[in-house]
């Protein structure tokens, strides 16, 4: 059974993580205090909860866990590392409802934070806390029997998430090179509340290109668009507070879809390790667009018929980044489709046929569509479709990151905050600019590749 270690870094990463754990428990049908009574039979629940090893270690394993109290009596510990250079968010895990599910050895904090400075997180806090982080990682790794990969959650805009988060990714690449590193990172493009966010996003992107196995970026503005579109469609009034909870829930639901093939049974399951093999044709083109349908938000539950899901998961409106894999100007290097719940092979074959009429594939990958079927649907749904695309339409994101970076760097604005960190070299700015340009050019080159032709004799 596949096992994952979740590493959440910085304020944003830990806020997503605080939503992640209860969603995991609900998906495994563990009743929390305000949950409605379960409709699962005892046998169904036993079949479902046998997969809880994916995210938990157990002292004693019961047949089933009806409530959170049952889970705590088994001395269960979540394989979560919570790291932040401020204590405010992580402190809630020490005192909150799920405090006994967190291992205290896996909570790492500092004061007063990274000051919204990538250099402070990467060059200062990284080396300072390197050994402590490695000890915590080793402690959790040694409790695993079949470690499938590391799942890292952080924001690209702040100092701790972008700086220390990418330092940890490189640390894992150096010390656990054979274990996959899957990164879910939030880009605040267009919604930044930090003036130095363009620098932080650029430096962090540069690191992920070289150290991550696969990156699943999400953009705040894409998430907010999804929330407002869903709530305005189904609700008369949109709460000003609800969208922020729903934004985190969308990210968590994406991760649950992403890992479902490794965690549950299915006729044609997709293991997480298959994603890298099938979706990343060149080492540095490892940023994958994700989308799924339907969305289930806190304030609205939408109902869809199965045939309505056909192209929705791959459409622009369901992407977690402002990009459109179906755009005729974009080139797809690989697609993965996962049907969860009541889907048949014929359902997915029909879906693939529709998709192929809309996608422009790279010449070498005209059949690069991997299909999976997972028996267990998301909580509260009968079925859903999850889509991953390695598409050049992701260039919209990187063009925006580079453009914002250059607006600041041309005027050398705020550069002194970074050079004040002794381990940071001012030449890193120029190197970052060059690396991002080279990275973007790799995608441009893919778009320019023409179909192969053979001379007839």
UniProtKB/TrEMBL annotation:
Tubulin/FtsZ 2-layer sandwich domain location: 268-403
GO biological process: microtubule-based process
Pfam families: Tubulin, Tubulin_C
Organism superkingdom: Eukaryota
GO cellular component, one term: microtubule
Entry keywords, A to Z: GTP-binding, Microtubule, Nucleotide-binding
PROSITE patterns per record: TUBULIN
Domain Tubulin/FtsZ GTPase: 52-266
GO molecular function: GTP binding
Family statement drawn from the similarity comment of this UniProt entry: Belongs to the tubulin family.
Annotated PANTHER family: TUBULIN
Protein name per UniProt: Tubulin beta chain
Organism: Zophobas morio
Source taxonomy: Eukaryota, Metazoa, Ecdysozoa, Arthropoda, Hexapoda
